[in-house]
Write a structure and sequence with these properties.
Elements lengths: L5 H11 L7 E9 L9 E10 L6 E9 L10 H28 L4 H4 L3 E7 L2 E7 L6 E3 L8 H24 L1 H8 L5 H8 L1 H17 L3 H10 L4 H12 L6 E3 L8 E4 L10 E4 L6 E3 L1 H12 L2 H4 L2 H18 L4 H4 L2 H11 L1 H14 L17 H6 L5 H17 L4
Antiparallel strand pairs: 1-2, 2-3, 3-5, 4-5, 6-8, 7-10, 8-9
Helix pairs in contact: 2-4, 2-6, 4-5, 4-10, 4-12, 6-9, 9-15, 10-14, 10-15, 15-17
């Protein structure tokens, strides 16, 4: 994996903090991402020290996400588009939402996302400099473990607040909303195409595991649900969701590692807040794109059985935030509309999770780098020797059985 050298970091930091007018500025690299953590780029952690012309030195703990160079991946348009999209999110979308927040005297964006110090574009590379949330005592959840109800409550509540920002912005500024968000290219579509061989291999592995465990009826029902395969279903869902009248700007990448939680001291079971990470595939879509992907990729069998309650938690937060933003929830996005869209679009989250879980649940020694393998049959290769089959099958089996049998609306 290509890593960032010190001279590059120094240049990026200088460009990021140039408006602070420090007389002296230094950056110390304190860590980088490991294999399997940042598939579409390098992640570098740094401590930045700025000495002003008067007063005490200031420290900034930052995360620098940068496109990889020199490994054959930077010419792939899906990678470039992903970085452009995250830069767009912090440069354009967040400031637009903050306009609405300011009008109503609230600050939700600060609660939802890490602080962005800068987005930078060079001739052959794009990058983004964010606050390192670990310096604020936020931490990742163990990606091998499903979220319990307490963690799902806080993430779904925040999705309600996040989606409310889009709905309120459209309600108050329909012209500006259309100009800003309509016509955004779908970065997820391109990434799915890039990894098509891997998704197809994961689908074969799913059927193999079901049949080896004598789940023949489930396998047959699944084939009826996905007659053209997982990739085709994902692409179909991506195409049709953006045309919903009340589509919102979605997160789009809703698996375990894209959330960081903060806990009360000495209490790791009750998160007090969460921030969302990675907006490289954000787009205009149904809220169900986020909800179905998030719930199916993170919930265990126990929590899946409480799907109706999970959606009510989300909607209660959405409704409350819409009211604070001067909107009528019954007019803008009633609960019945959420359920209609869930029935129509939740297959997206199911299809995505049937692939993603096979990556997420790998043990560290089995993790892979999609770019390094050129998008080849990653899943087929990794399952030949991984130590995680039982865990993967348990989660996938619960997912399949829930999706095929649940009808409690």
């Amino acid at each position: 994996m290509t890593t960032c050298i010190q001279s590059e970091i120094n240049q990026w930091v200088a460009d990021t903090f140039k408006e602070n007018q420090f007389k002296d500025l230094s950056a110390e690299i304190v860590g980088t991402s490991e294999q399997g953590e940042g598939y579409l780029g390098n992640i570098t952690f740094a401590k930045v020290t700025g000495v002003p012309f008067s007063g005490k030195a200031k420290e900034f703990h930052v995360v620098i996400k940068s496109e990889k160079r020199g490994d054959g991946t930077t010419n792939l348009s899906p990678v470039q588009l992903a970085y452009e999209r995250e830069n767009f999110f912090y440069d354009k979308a967040v400031p637009a939402f903050q306009e609405i927040e300011k009008k109503y005297g609230i600050n939700i964006t600060q609660q939802l996302f890490p602080k962005c110090f800068s987005t930078l574009s060079y001739e052959d590379q794009q990058l983004i400099v964010l606050q390192n949330l670990k310096s604020l005592d936020f931490e990742l959840y163990d990606r091998h473990q499903p979220f319990d109800m307490e963690h799902l409550k806080v993430t779904l509540s925040n999705y309600g607040k996040f989606h409310a920002l889009s709905l309120a912005y459209r309600e108050h500024k329909p012209k500006e909303f259309k100009e800003l968000f309509s016509g955004l290219p779908c970065a997820m579509k391109n990434i799915i195409e890039l990894t098509k061989n891997s998704v197809d291999a994961a689908e074969k592995c799913l059927y193999m595991m079901l049949e080896e465990n004598h789940k023949f009826k489930a396998a047959e029902k699944l084939k009826e649900l996905l007659p053209d395969g997982v990739t085709a279903k994902i692409q179909q869902m991506l195409r049709i969701q953006e045309h919903e009248e009340n589509a919102v700007l979605v997160h789009g990448d809703c698996w375990n590692n894209n959330y960081m939680f903060k806990y009360p001291k000495q209490e790791k079971t009750l998160p007090e807040s969460v921030k969302f990470l990675d907006f490289q595939v954000t787009k205009l879509s149904s809220p169900v794109m986020d909800l179905s992907y998030h719930i199916y990729a993170t919930a265990s069998e126990k929590e899946l059985a409480q799907l109706k309650e999970l959606l009510q938690i989300y909607y209660s937060s959405l409704s409350s935030m819409l009211k604070k933003l001067g909107c009528d929830p019954e007019k803008v996005f009633p609960y019945e509309e959420l359920i209609r869209q869930w029935k129509k679009y939740s297959c997206f989250g199911f299809a995505m999770s049937s692939f993603v879980l096979q990556i997420v649940l790998l043990e560290k020694e089995d993790t892979i780098d999609i770019e390094a393998m050129g998008g080849e049959n990653v899943t087929a290769n990794m399952l030949k020797s991984n130590n995680s089959l039982n865990k993967i099958y348990s989660r996938l089996s619960a997912l399949v059985e829930h999706y095929l049998e649940f009808d409690d609306f």
